[in-house]
Amino acid sequence: MPEVLPRYGTTTLADVLPSLLHAIGAPLDENPPAFALPPARAAALLMIDGLGHGLLRAHAADAPVLAGLADSGPLAVGFPSTTPISLTSLGTGLPPGTHGTLGLRFRVNGHLLDALSWSEGRRDLRETVVPERVQPAPTVLERATAAGVDVRVVSHREFATSGLTRSGLRGGTYRGVAALGDLAVELLSGVDDRDGSGPRLVYGYHADLDHLGHLYGPGSPAWRWQLRQVDALVGMLAEALPAGALLAVTGDHGMVTVDRVTDVDDSPALRDGLVLIGGDPRARHLYTRTGASADVLATWRDTLGDDAWVVPGEQAVADGWFGPVTDAVRDRIGDVVVALRGTAAVVRSEAEPYLSSFPGQHGSFTPAEQLVPLLVHPG
Are residues 286 and 301 in the same domain? Predict the structure, then answer.
């Protein structure tokens, strides 16, 4: 069994925004919140991409502000533990098997969709694989807006109309930013309720910690310097937070440094019987030709051995890897699903040269990847 199998519906990333809405007196339903957070008039959630619970604890000296905040976690992010899945779970309040974003790359209507760029190769798919149809459920942000909450999404300007924003984070007012400075300004202005206009919820996103973790490895000097900058940002936000507002900080996954790789593009045997290879180096969807699933399963198990959990897609669904899986998204899951153990990776040096070059990776079930903090500072 996987090391960390998320308890969907209880203490995962999908439960964070509904709990914050409870805290500001604007619950979406009568269910008790998963996280008992301090009551507030307004709440800001800062998502630090790549902020793993274990990484923060290991490098607490570089982040004294973050390490000193009350932690309602750790919470699991879901499978695969990769940004598009996690952010869609956060934004919709749903597990992956329900919202249907099931990998960094996954099959939708015959396309191998890259969920970060919403493309296939260099082809933009936003008009043909429409994000609002890929993920049609109302988001938490949409539902909160409809209930009268002043909702804002604060993220980089280039993400305003991205497929990922449109599918999993639509709703509220989008405020595009360029750097840490205007991110801070928008977060603070979003929770400023001096006009008495009612409950406010602000979601902010920062990507650079994850970026440097990929490039240099989590815990590297560059990564640690970036963590210090994030910590300084959170410290300044906490100091400037209006009275009665709440600041929460979380991550969308952690990360491991890989030290052994299997290259699919160098192995004809691993490609035999496959139509498409989805996912990322730590979590793969294998879409097989008709009748080839059993042979693909056996070959991948024999090749990867103890470096991976390799299971039929039906078993991954039955064992709850993705949470409850709806009929509408079942065919997006691979005929064979691979989750890497330890610090191993399955790369594609020709098809995915940039992604394959990273020492830092995430996507699987290790605690280092799955567990993230939920840090809270009441104003």
Answer: yes
Q: How far is CA 54 from CA 115, 221, 303, in A?
A: 26, 17, 30
Instruction: Name the pTM for this structure.
Output: 0.97
Q: What is the DSSP string of 201-215?
A: EEEEEE-HHHHHHHH
Q: What is the tens place of the pLDDT at every residue in 53-90?
A: 999 999 999 999 999 999 998 999 999 999 999 999 99
Q: What's the pLDDT tens digit per position in 222-250? A: 999 999 999 999 999 999 999 999 999 99
Q: pLDDT tens across 248-281, in order? A: 999 999 999 999 999 999 999 999 999 999 999 9
Q: Which CATH number goes with the domain that contains 302? A: 3.30.1360.180
53's enclosing H/E stretch is helix 53-58
Evaluate whether residue 2 is within a structural domain: no
DSSP classification of residue 331:
G
Report the C-alpha gap between 38 and 22 in whole angstroms: 10
- Overall domain count for the chain: 2
In degrees, to the nearest 5, what angle opens at C-alpha 168 toward C-alphas 162 and 171?
Answer: 85
Residue 159 lies in a domain: yes
